[in-house]
Amino acid sequence: MLPVNSLDEKAEILTRVGLFSGLKDNREALAALSAIMNKVEFSERMVLLTEGEAGAEFYILISGQVSVYKKTSENDNYKVAILADKITPGLGEGGLIENETRSATVICDRLCQFLVLNREVFSQFCDQHPAWAIPILKKISVQLIARLAQSNRDILLLHKALMNEIRG
User: How far is Cα 77 from Cα 75, in angstroms, rounded to an integer?
Assistant: First the structure.
């Protein structure tokens, strides 16, 4: 398991997280972010995020592996992804902006460690350091726009399939 005990270690981890890529060369900003993040541990089979529930935290997987599930129209869960610490994934960035409804359920496959950033603390960070907040907020916006565009493509594909079935 990766020991993360100092601000320097946390800051180094943040350089690998896409959400903070705009601050990658700004050690002062990364140190300030590191200082407001907590390290937490979740045991195997613990639910980190639940689809449909509001959330106010952003999680960075630093040790372990999680599975991501989506609900079908019949309310069954199906696995859509497995995320491992090797890629240092961030989960739940929408929660940093508002009480964002979680778009998936995330369950720990084994013991996991995360760095956690709370929305209220992040909001204070943004107020205190607007120049550092802008690249992060831009990245969140880009990610949300990309997801919206993908949803639009999915809807058009489903519409086309439905029309072909009707005409068929």
Answer: 7
Question: Looking at the 3D structure of the chain, how many domains does it have?
Answer: 1
Integer Cα distance of 32 and 126 in angstroms: 11
- Asked, for residue 1, whether it belongs to a domain, the answer is no
What's residue 4's pLDDT? 57
CATH of the domain at 163: 2.60.120.10
Beta-carbon contacts of 42 under 8 Å, excluding residues fewer than 6 positions away, are 48, 64, 108, 111, 112, 114
The residue to which tokens 């240092």 are assigned: 88
DSSP codes of every residue in 54-117: EE-EEEEEEESEEEEEEE-TTS-EEEEEEEEGGG--EE-GGGGTSSEEPSSEEEESS-EEEEEE
The answer as to whether 2 is a domain residue is no
pTM for the full predicted model: 0.85
Which residues form the domain of 76?
Answer: 7-167
**Mean pLDDT across 105-113:** 97
